[in-house]
Amino acid sequence: MKLSLSLQQSFESATLPLKRAYLKKVIETTLRYIDVDEDCEIGIACVDHDESHRLNLEYRQKDKATNVLSFPSDIPEEVVALLDALPIGDLVICIPVVLTEAQEQNKTPIEHFSHMLVHGVLHLMGYDHETSEADAEQMEAIEIAILAKLGFDNPYIS
């Protein structure tokens, strides 16, 4: 599998230096774990509080900033078949929210950011935790396993 990554960083943080190689490692580990073996494309935007708030209000009707927003690709299957790589979609990650949550949850910034990246990629691939308790448990178990492969503890244990 080859991963094409588009990265937009309109917000950067000294406590969370994001390198393309690291992002690709986390995303590729996630995709391999769920048995995606074809070439893929993904876009990631690291944004500030205001941009996250605006997008969350516009697309989810929630009047607050959030840690990660997932925008799955909606390209028709017949078009996807003509492409060299599967367009997965785009993630918008609010760095200030991730940093605040990491502190509140007694996690390192990179630990929580990695969890949000895995979580977002799983959403792009159709996983959901809001429909049913069984779906939430399945998604959490997958996240725990992927994060363990990356050397992180279970994010759901305080």
From TrEMBL:
Key word Hydrolase present: yes
InterPro entries referenced in this protein's UniProt entry, alphabetically: MetalPrtase_cat_dom_sf_prd, YbeY, YbeY_CS
Record keywords: Cytoplasm, Endonuclease, Hydrolase, Metal-binding, Nuclease, Ribosome biogenesis, rRNA processing, Zinc
EC main group: hydrolase
Protein name: Endoribonuclease YbeY
Biological-process GO terms, alphabetical: rRNA processing
Source organism of this protein record: Acinetobacter rudis CIP 110305
Residues annotated to bind Zn(2+): H119, H123, H129
Single GO MF descriptor: RNA endonuclease activity
